[in-house]
Amino acid sequence: MTQALYLSDQTSADVQVLSCELNQDGLFAVRLEQTPFHPQGGGQPSDLGTINDVNVVHVVQQDGDIIHYCQGEIALGLAFAQVAQKQRHFYSRLHSAGHLIGHIMQSFGWHPVKAQHWPEDAKVQFTQSENAQDIDQIHLQEICQQYIRRDLPRMMQQNDQGYREVGFGDLPKFPCGGTHVQSLSEIGNIEITGYKIKKGKLTVAYKVTEMCL
């Protein structure tokens, strides 16, 4: 099982290359003992970057291992892995923004049931509780920015089942294996781009403004 260094925010590390195999698409499937690369999953795209200056174009989780698809062969043994930091930060901002929207809507009686944090298609889906309150997208966006200005710090813990939970300040924590900002001010601006109820489910679409590191 690959050690997930990305869970502690690492974006670079000396790693051990355990295997490197050419696949049918012409890419090399590389398995590491430990990795700073977040694999695609949990609604979040995979990190990109390099291993020994060879481009990593996709990362997936497979049977407990994390597989890095690379554009060239990498020798077994010690190597240096470097995640594309600007992109990692952008994905972390998107994921944290989705959590914040989930927290706010939950406080109005809407239960988050599904989310994806893709740059061009980020959205959170909710079901309505019996005591759900009305909130429109303009009000939701205003509350998001209020929390961002408060700059609540990220809080992490393991629950009784051993799963990682992520929250901000005193907001409830959600089980999550994704990457997140250190505090809410890093998100910048959230724009609510869609707000639609269909078949009893509310879908809130959003985006965050790109920032330079």
From TrEMBL:
Q: Which residues form the Threonyl/alanyl tRNA synthetase SAD domain?
A: 168-200
**Source superkingdom:** Bacteria
Q: Which InterPro entries match?
A: Alanyl-tRNA_Editing_Enzymes, Thr/Ala-tRNA-synth_IIc_edit, Transl_B-barrel_sf, tRNA_SAD
Give UniProt keywords alphabetically: Metal-binding, Zinc
A Gene Ontology biological process noted in the UniProt record is: tRNA aminoacylation
One annotated GO molecular function: metal ion binding
> Required co-factor?
Zn(2+)
Q: Does the keyword Chloroplast apply?
A: no
Q: What is the protein name stated in its UniProt record?
A: Threonyl/alanyl tRNA synthetase SAD domain-containing protein
